[in-house]
Amino acid sequence: MNQARIEINCEKVYSMGITGRGVGVAVLDTGIYLHEDFKDRVAGFADFVNHRQVPYDDNGHGTHIAAIIGGSGRSSEGLYRGVAPGCSLISVKVLDNKGNGYASDVLSGLKWIREHRKEYGIRIVNISVGSLSRRDMTENSILVRGVNAAWDDGLVVVVAAGNHGPGRMTITTPGISRKVITVGCSDDHKEVEVMGSRMVDYSGRGPTVACICKPDIVAPGSGIISCCNEPGKYFSKSGTSMSTPLVSGAIALLLEKYPKMSNKDVKLHIRERAVNLGLPHNQQGWGKLDVGRLLAE
After folding, report:
1. Taking residues 120-147, what's their average pLDDT?
2. Residue 29 catalytic?
3. What is the mean pLDDT of the chain?
4. Are 208 and 180 spatial neighbours (Cβ–Cβ below 8 Å)?
5. Residue 241 annotated among the catalytic residues of the structure
6. How far is CA 225 from each of CA 19, 142, 144, 192, 228, rounded to the nearest angstrom?
7. Exactly one of 203, 222, 241, 243 is catalytic; which is it?
8. If exposure means fewest CB atoms within 10 Å of the residue's CB, which of 22, 98, 127, 148 is most exposed?
9. How many Cβ atoms sit within 10 Å of the Cβ of residue 141?
10. In angstroms, how far is CA 73 from the centroid of its own chain?
11. Domains, in order of start, for the chain
């Protein structure tokens, strides 16, 4: 994660004392392991799979995602620090120990987030999951309607573009929503292991079936090192699942600096400050995330 942090230019922001403090980020995933890098910043937990009360992660994916957003890097002496190490994290378990889940659980998780947003100070929802099922690829699908409802409530919803590229119309649902911020991978030209297979050029590409240009922005996603669901340990994972929390963490920094920004303001600001890579819009969106540029005056 250190490599990715350098690539997205966080250091100047940290020197300003901005860490995401006071901003709640909800992570819909496999849960969260209470790694040392989170300290006391896991503010809430809800489990729609096994209905347990105490935070846990029987897969590791959710912990990896959460630490990219807000890990302190304590166990690595700051080497593998998340983008917003001062933010609070709210884990919502909607995926099982194999990383699979049901749309109904995702919807229940989104409903829970909307109902508890004020209690936990939730401003951002990170969704590093998606479906490429044909029946889900319309804007009227239940997953799209679910994220749209969260967006309409004022939450900043950040969703992965999926790992089914490089063909057209390979953005997964709910990333096809025209409202949410959909994140692709900026370095998928590197051959890495994604979902158990060696892959290259895997980041989902637009347009959507409704001819909406997607993704909206890209960030590094290849070989990202973050927390493991074991004491003091880290491991590397790749995919747009890893790109997405880099953007969520950056938004947490932005909302600490500008707490009155609406989700529409955030999306517009990201568009204006993205770095154009000169790639097709349906590959790079507005461009690559640069945190220093995002928070510059």
Report:
1. 89
2. yes
3. 94
4. no
5. yes
6. 19, 33, 30, 13, 9
7. 241
8. 98
9. 18
10. 18
11. 1-295 (3.40.50.200)
